[in-house]
Amino acid sequence: MTTETKKIEQSNTYNVIDSMGRPTSIYIIASNIKEACAEAKKRQAEIGSAYYKVKRAYNGGVRG
């Protein structure tokens, strides 16, 4: 008897906030905040500043 386990990952949307506190048009889809920060670090040239925040964007969706 074989038992398969499925790994369920969330796909949350995160928004990058610039150094002035304004939301940018850069959205990152990641499973958690740690992954979103790592992705934002890779895209730092696109963000344009070394100072930024990553904040979860609640857009309704299936689970609210």
**Helicity level:** 10-25%
Low-confidence stretches: none
Overall mean pLDDT: 84
H-E order: EEHHE
Tally of helical runs: 2
* Large-scale geometry: elongated
Write the layout of secondary structure elements.
Elements: E1 12-17, E2 23-30, H1 33-42, H2 44-47, E3 53-56
Please tag this protein with its features:
64 residues; alpha+beta; three-stranded antiparallel beta sheet; 3 strands; 22% helix
In short:
This protein is an alpha+beta fold and about 60 residues long.
Describe the structure.
- By secondary structure, the protein is an alpha+beta fold.
- It contains two helices and three strands.
- It has helices spanning 33-42, 44-47; strands at 12-17, 23-30, 53-56.
- Strand 1 (12-17) and strand 2 form a beta hairpin.
- The longest helix is centred in the middle third of the chain and has 10 residues, at 33-42.
